[in-house]
Amino acid sequence: MSTIEQPPPGVEAPSQSADGKGARTRRTLIGHLLAVIAESGEFTADAVAERAGVSPAAFYAHFATKDRALAACLDASFADYAARMAEVETIEHLLDHGLEQTLRAMVATLLRVNADYLSLLRLARSRVQSSEELREQSRTGERAAFAATARLLQLAQAAGHVRAGDVEVMTATVRTVLQGLDSWLVRSHPIVAADEVPRLLASYLSPGGPHDVDA
Question: Among 64, 88, 113, which residue terminates a domain?
């Protein structure tokens, strides 16, 4: 089986039309890539192409290297994360349900995404140090997540539901804690994510709490 290093000679780049055949084939390949990785923790061009009902050459036309294929999968996982988080990481959710319940919903959403893409994240981490492409893809996803959380905190601060302070620093603190949820410690102690982390973050962010400099 091929190990996806370089495309075969003569393979041309696919069409980049958003709704063209090339784009549809790419989306199909990414879906099968994610399925193969979820099942085995790895993938080959031949295995994915066979599942998708295309030739290995068609796979190489879209993903010239293994890292490029992984970057496309990460991009899909980040888009899924953003779509799911957009339902709970909003000022409307916070005003309706309160700060701590919104944080609980955010944590629960992140945990579900981490579980759904566990094998992909493990594979990407095993290669990220040797791949600038994967590092940049990860940074892009992290920047987008940071911006979404910062917007929520800024709006919540203006509405009086988050204490005064540097929003960027508070966002960095929240994102650091949330990233730490992808840990075997958390998976082996479910109460940490279900209860302790949201409660701690709510205490950290709440007006009048122990971290409020104006309290």
Answer: 64
With CA atoms as reference, report the closest residue to 81 among 36, 157, 153, 138: 138
pLDDT in tens, 31-53: 999 999 999 999 999 999 999 99
Looking at the structure, tell me whether residues 59 and 75 fall in a common domain. no
Over the stretch 82-110, which tens digit does the pLDDT of each residue have?
Answer: 999 999 999 999 999 999 999 999 999 99
- First-to-last C-alpha distance (Å) of the chain: 64
Distances (CA, A) of 41 to 55, 70, 118, 125, 181: 22, 12, 9, 12, 20
pTM value is 0.85
Helices (H) then strands (E): counts for the chain: 12, 0
CA distance 84 to 78: 10
Are 172 and 85 part of one and the same domain?
Answer: yes
Crossing angle for the helix pair 167-179 and 99-116, nearest 10 degrees? 40
